[in-house]
Amino acid sequence: MTSSAWAAQTLADQETGTAFEHLIGSLRGLQDSVTSTRPPAEVALAIAAELRAVAHRLDEFGVGEADQLAGAQMDYPGRSQACVPVLDHTAQSADEVRGTLQLSRFHLGRNGAAHGGVIPLVFDEIFGRLAGTDRPRCRTAFLHVDYREITPIGRRLDFTGRVERVDGRKIFVTGSLADGDAVVAEADALFVVLREGQP
Ligand SMILES: CCCCCCCC(=O)SCCNC(=O)CCNC(=O)[C@H](O)C(C)(C)COP(=O)(O)OP(=O)(O)OC[C@H]1O[C@@H](n2cnc3c(N)ncnc32)[C@H](O)[C@@H]1OP(=O)(O)O
After folding, report:
1. Which family, according to the similarity comment (predicted)?
2. What Å distances lie between residue 120 and 75, 99, 123, 160, 189, CA to CA?
3. Ligand 1 centroid to residue 153 C-alpha, Å
């Protein structure tokens, strides 16, 4: 069991946490449904009104960042964060991670290829969790991505991440994303451990 510097600042009771994760799962599904359909105007307008009503229903439960569950539930593969693709870790230590993820229509760029901006998002998530495992909180100073081939949506992809070197506050990491035998993207990044008082 590893501990993360990004561990939840807010722990919900299990019922609340699980229910919130269901809510995020439904939101992910909605993002895909909206992206992959072409409803007639009256249907689109009716659904838009329903979604505004849903959002309004949540208004009374607004909280500040320290109390939000989104992004803070580290026990769930997507940490209840709808912006970031769900990472299913199969191996995880403070030095190395492996796992799988699947991008969906919501992440589409064009012609079956994932949006180019999604790939660094994925690497930042993989690397950020890795760099913060059993270490103090750190932030991405740089993140360099090499796009080797298009990254397909709708297929299970393998990811890796590895801490190559730690030099004082600097943590250098590398990683890859593969579709079967084909490496579709590689990345390297620097994370810097935050000093006291740094946001
Ligand atoms: C579960 C959650 C997972 C998701 C995690 C997601 C993580 C993120 O995305 S964080 C958000 C994106 N990143 C940011 O917003 C960071 C913005 N930048 C900053 O806050 C600062 O520039 C920060 C903290 C990175 C470094 O600033 P600071 O603490 O003052 O460090 P500083 O003293 O300048 O540099 C420390 C060392 O790093 C090096 N360094 C800093 N930035 C860079 C860079 N871009 N390139 C190369 N080296 C760098 C410096 O040269 C220095 O090296 P040395 O010690 O050898 O002299």
Report:
1. Belongs to the THEM4/THEM5 thioesterase family.
2. 23, 16, 5, 14, 10
3. 31
